[in-house]
Amino acid sequence: MLPLRHRGWWIALSAALVAALVYGSLVPIPPLPMPGNFDKLEHFAVYAGLAIWFTGLYPRPRYGRVVLALLALAGGLEIAQGLMHLGRQADVLDMAANATGVGIGLACALVLTGNWARRVESWLGPR
Questions:
Q1: Which terminus of the chain faces fewer neighbouring Cβ atoms within 10 Å, N or C?
Q2: What is the pTM of this model?
Q3: Given its phi and psi angles, is residue 47 left (phi above 0), alpha (psi -120 to 50 degrees) or beta?
Q4: Do 93 and 41 meet the contact criterion of CB atoms below 8 Å apart?
């Protein structure tokens, strides 16, 4: 992780984001009417956001690990959805949307958003 002044807060917020994703991915839900493949857009956006979030907290040499961790999380959640039989199902297209989101998030980090947490902390001023 980058040397950040508010490291504890960043870790707590990161844990809350991942916990919310895990809960939202595994909680049984009743079938809801949804426009065709809208959930793929949700998968894409969530994982792009997570990639941008975590690449802002880690230095560039760690981006590969961030990507692998997010893909492992996405794959694990898809497998769990397939095993739970409570209204969720594993979907290869969901995983493709997740991976595409991670890839776009990584591209954004390489071009623009990487290191964003340091910039935010510089706006907050000294302790």
A1: C
A2: 0.92
A3: alpha
A4: no
Q: What is the rounded CA–CA span in Å between residue 105 and residue 44?
A: 9
For the chain, the three-class secondary structure string (H helix, E strand, C coil) is: CCCCCCHHHHHHHHHHHHHHHHHHHHCCCCCCCCCCCHHHHHHHHHHHHHHHHHHCCCCHHHHHHHHHHHHHHHHHHHHHHHHHCCCCCCCHHHHHHHHHHHHHHHHHHHHHHCCHHHHHHHHHCCC
Q: What is the pLDDT of residues 15-70, one digit of tens each?
A: 999 999 999 999 987 666 667 678 899 999 999 999 999 999 999 999 999 999 99
Q: Tell me: pLDDT of 112 over 90.
A: yes
* Of the candidates 18, 14, 35, 16, the residue with the CA atom closest to the CA atom of residue 26: 18
Give the domain ranges of the chain. 44-127
